[in-house]
Specification:
It is a single chain. With about 210 residues, this protein is of the alpha+beta class. About 45% of the residues lie in helices and about 10% in strands. It is built from 7 helices and 6 strands; from the N terminus they run H-H-H-E-E-H-H-E-E-H-E-E-H. The strands form 3 sheets. It has a two-stranded antiparallel ribbon. Strands 3-4 form a two-stranded antiparallel ribbon. Strands 5-6 form a two-stranded antiparallel sheet. The longest helix is centred in the N-terminal third of the chain and has 35 residues, at about 50-85. The mean pLDDT is about 95.
Length: about 210
């Protein structure tokens, strides 16, 4: 059984001598694996600030899932070996035929998947992540969302109105409530030049994203 345990040594409980802790059936005890969060749900909720760490845990979780499958294989293999070791002797029937019990075939060990990188785990979600992270302006990641686009349009209209009434000097500084990967954050725009630069960066990034 020791050789069969070798593939999951990193996933089982070991004693003080680094030897597997076995039960009465000679089977190891699986250690506690990581708690894996649903990446699609996290991203759908906009929680991508630490998504690389969650992706790393997800990759580990896939390995633990394989380890559990391998453990189930060991349990089944143990049962098969016990059954085959205790096969009843062939029995002669009254008609002269012999009844024999065939041994059970050994189960196939599950193949271990390759360890995925963070990039590989996140590949199916990368476009959504890019949209949520958006552009960085004054240290804040502004999402390329329609809400932010509408907010910019409203701010532009308000600035034009202020200019119409010659009160643009009262317009800045102004706070823009931006959707970000951390939730809503306040982006302070100090003057018209900064506002135009932010608007241009956002529009170009959003255009490139959807092109």
């Amino acid at each position: 059984m020791t050789n069969n345990i070798t593939p999951i040594l990193d996933f089982i409980v070991l004693d003080e001598n680094e030897a597997p802790v076995l039960n009465e059936q000679g089977l190891p005890t699986l250690a506690q694996g990581p708690i894996v969060n649903d990446l699609s749900q996290l991203i759908a909720k906009g929680k991508v600030e630490h998504i690389e760490k969650f992706a790393e845990i997800a990759a580990q979780g896939e390995q633990w899932q394989w380890a559990r499958s391998y453990y189930e294989y060991l349990v089944e293999l143990n049962q098969v070996n016990e059954f085959n070791a205790n096969l009843p002797e062939p029995m002669a029937n009254e008609d002269g035929t012999i009844t024999t019990v065939e041994p059970r075939p050994e189960p196939a060990a599950p193949e271990r998947p390759a360890v995925q990188t963070v990039d590989q785990v996140l590949a199916p979600y990368q476009r959504k992540i890019d949209k949520l992270c958006g552009i960085k302006f004054k240290g804040i990641n502004i999402s390329l969302s329609e809400t932010n686009q509408n907010g910019l349009s409203a701010l532009k209209s308000a600035l034009e109105l202020a200019k119409e009434f010659n009160v643009e000097e009262q317009f800045f500084p102004i706070n823009f409530n931006a959707e970000t990967c951390k939730g809503v954050e306040v982006l302070e725009l100090l003057n018209e030049t900064e506002f135009k630069q932010f608007g241009l960066d956002f529009i170009l990034a959003r255009k490139a994203f959807f092109s």
